[in-house]
Backbone:
């Protein structure tokens, strides 16, 4: 039975590319969560005025990959110590956040932050926020790395290092490595 993890780690194009390569992940949808405007557009979210984060909703098979494993991958493939930014992307829409859907997911998110802190010299600023309305991003944002992203200079600079980190640190979890 499919379970879901909703994660915000900066640009959703980048986090989507990483999680699509994880064994046990059945789907990854880019979208918006954590704001106060119904049905926001990409332009609205990018303005920072809606309160939403660019996020991904990961459908996964818990028999193949656990929620805790997904969180460990999340913390290893973005910088959770940057407040409201990832690299050159600045604003609350690029915050590091976890949106647990159950009490168990919330407990696991807190445990993952404690585990991950050992790997970071600065304090982790990832927030754990209430799961609320999920709004899928526009169609052209879905599967972005597999389509437009490999022609986008920003993506070419940011995504390959994230995929390399996944494939090195979590080789047994990578579809590309085990294929």
Residues:
């Amino acid at each position: 039975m499919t379970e879901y993890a909703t994660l915000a780690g900066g640009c959703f194009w980048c986090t989507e590319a990483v999680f699509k390569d994880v064994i046990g992940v059945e789907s990854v949808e880019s979208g918006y969560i954590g704001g106060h405007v119904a049905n926001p557009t990409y332009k609205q979210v990018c303005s920072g005025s809606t309160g939403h984060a660019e996020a991904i909703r990961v459908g996964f098979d818990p028999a193949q990959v656990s929620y805790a494993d997904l969180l460990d991958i999340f913390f290893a493939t973005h910088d959770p110590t940057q407040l409201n930014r990832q690299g050159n992307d600045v604003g609350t829409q690029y915050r590091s956040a976890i949106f647990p859907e159950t009490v168990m997911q919330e407990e696991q998110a807190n445990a993952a932050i404690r585990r991950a802190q050992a790997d970071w010299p600065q304090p982790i600023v990832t927030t754990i926020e209430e799961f609320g309305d999920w709004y899928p991003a526009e169609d052209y944002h879905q599967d972005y790395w597999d389509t437009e992203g490999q022609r986008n200079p920003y993506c070419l600079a940011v995504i390959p290092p994230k995929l390399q980190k996944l494939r090195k640190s979590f080789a047994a979890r990578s579809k590309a490595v085990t294929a």
